[in-house]
Amino acid sequence: MKPLNLITLLLFLAGVAWALTRSEEGVRQIQRTYYAAIGPFLKSGANLETKARAFTDEVEHSKTVIAKLEVAEAALVKLRTEASHLRKLEEENIQLRSALKFQQRSPFSVKAAKLIRRKPATWWETITIDRGLEHKVEAQLPVLAAEGLVGKVDRPNNETSTVILLTDEKCQVSAKIKGSQEVGILSGQRAQHGEKPMLRLRYLSKEAKIKPGSTVVTTGRGGLFPANINLGTVVSSEVGAIDAEALVKPAVDFAALDTVFVLLGHQ
Amino acid sequence: MIRYHISLFIFVLIACVLQQFIPAVTALYDARILLLHLVFLCCSVTVGFSPMLGLAFLCGFLWDANNTLGPQGGDSEVYINQIDSLRFGYSILLFGLMGVLMQCIQPLFRRGAWQVSAILTGISVFLYLLAEFLLITFVRGEWIFPAKVLTQIWLTAAMTMLCSPLIFAILFKLAKLFDFTIRYDGLKRRYFTPEAYSLDK
What we know:
heterodimer; A: alpha+beta; six-stranded antiparallel beta barrel; six-stranded antiparallel β-barrel; 3 helices; 36% helix; globular; B: 8 helices; elongated
């Protein structure tokens, strides 16, 4: 091996050792700097996506109208299009009202945030939101949707934050089955694919009478999440040698998430 | 020569930004094009050992800064089984290993058989993702390897590999622009032509 290559190899290995031995705070600092640099691209990308979606919707809409005109149903189509547009507005209105009501009825201070990126990593179930340290978003804060728990803030940066979803194996939640004394740990499953991920509620007692359809909520223990936040419903259960576990369908439709709420007053 | 190498580092940074906008395809088992990995793999076959290690460090560093998860947090009396994730810096090592693999076929690339390098990018990405998943399994325990994971890995590798001719074309253009000859200084075989390969042949 050439001396230059040998020196580079040694430098490379020293660099690897340096990176691997960074403290948690050191890694966070590196990530904060990285996201400060890449943040503007992420935000402009999200804006572009919104505009592109609006444009696509517009194009689809125009095509539909033209097609209907060709079959001499102009008037009917116009009415249908208007009705469809109104329905869309109505749905949007209902969604916004629901979000507003959620924000009003929440006993904590919540900060609404928009999703700007979905699942950037290969193996982790994470999303990126457009709120960060500048908006008082901190690590480990719970993230909610109107239907229930979404996850928690994993890495707050200046303007954006990474949220680890409930469907990730690393996002563990102390949970209980509503109406019973059964307490366990709820988390996502490794290497799970598809639009309808399932959760695992583990460490339940062997004698537990778990009925499919039962609601699973947070216990409030463990210092991460407040009590009685909806998590999902039991689909099935299985008794093992030591304990029992249940398969839980999440309350939140993660594929349809658009706006989430960070619970600022809790930690 | 230095201008070509600087352009590669800039190319990697651009790929890192573009990677942010490449979504996972849910219908294809969350497979996606790993542009940063692809650009690194294609670059690593065109440069010497030392610049390849430099690129590996940069790519691994950027990838980990983008993806490393924080600690789980919470009361350890409630969350007894803390779930670990991979440490910051592991990707640098994996990128380095992929680069070494790509350099093994540099003589063929020098000869003009860039197609072999293109196929090897797919194989490298496959091995990278497999190693990553096995590392996660090793760190977290509980052996899980569903068939869907294998499908996700090979689909990601295939999708990434299909984009490699485009990246090679950009690299040949860059090499021409900066008068860089893709040189192989290692073990020489007489059936390898001494001339550099270019798109204009």
